[in-house]
Amino acid sequence: MATNLVSTLMQFVTPDLIAKIASALGLDRTIAQKAVGAGVPAILASLASLASKPGGAQQISSALTQQKSNTLDSLMNSLGSSSQTARSEEGADMLSSLMGTGGLNALTSALSSYAGIGAGKTGTLLGLLGPMVMGALSQYQRRSGLDASSVASQLTSQRDQIASSLPPGFADKLRDSGFMDTLDSSMRRSAETVAATARRASDMSEAAVASSSRAAAATAQRAATTWPYWVAALAILAGLGWYYAAERESAQVAEQKQTPPPAAETTGAGTPSQTVAQLTGQLTNQVDGMRTALQGITDSATAQAALPKLQQMSSELDKLSNAAMQLSPDARKTIATQISTAMPAFNQLCDKVLAIPGVAPIAKPVIDAVLSKLDNLARA
Q1: Which domains does the chain have, with CATH numbers?
Q2: DSSP 219-268
Q3: What is the pTM of this model?
Q4: What are 210-219's pLDDT values in tens digits?
């Protein structure tokens, strides 16, 4: 079975790389992570599209051949140095030759809008990501003993996987900027499917709040026509309370970054009582919380101190996983995409923690359990 190219490349997107990119471009680390997490699969999507076009495989082969064995190290060393601008310009020229000037401009526009950063910094970022993607593909090619045409074939065959790694909401930005028009029809259909799934999830979230508002209004109207005025007033207040409770429920997701979120509950015969957007946010928060806990482990003592928190998070993850399994296939796919995007960097962090002397005997069981649960969600 061919290696998942998205996962292979995202292994190079380490916390250290994100920190260096953020510092070099003057960005918040969260924003840098968001931009890189969208930029890498978008570049891969363009390469997959190019690979299926006449002469495209040869173009990719030539670009891979030009990559040196130390491309990635050289890129890391250039961040924040006097050579950064030159490396970014070289990378931008390479991307322009592969996806066309119009394609690169459209991608720059989409990524700038999605990540909320200026077009200038976005262009610099893409100029740095281009060599990183090609360098990682070249390294994978050498280690696997493949020729460049085999890599191009894998890009073509993994269109759906690449498209599913595009973050929810980003595919719409790619469409609006005209980037989708630069892709071949198959790659474009895959990306549009991702965009449509994300829009349905968003519509479900908005519909939940709208439903609460309509129910509150209907309750108030019935009370006004059949009850005394003071009873009607109470009904109106109750309806408003229902509406604002729904609003607060969404807002609380953002406030739960530092503490484990409550388990997703169900009502009736297993009908989810939370929206897809809320459940996705809670799962993301769980991964963020576990990442923070793992980053605090430096020896066996800190591993022992972090163990109760990791066990609690693992238990909460079970409840959220059960809630996710009750959703529709499209909704589960949206959640799986989010988890898949975060998994490569999270796996690498787990490996680093377990490599610390004395930590594995303490933390490995719970870490393995968490990774298994996340892997199941990513395959939903």
Answers
A1: 5-183 (no CATH), 200-255 (no CATH), 258-380 (1.20.1280)
A2: HHHHHHHHS-HHHHHHHHHHHHHHHHHHHHHHHHHHHTSSSPPPPPPEET
A3: 0.55
A4: 554 455 455 4
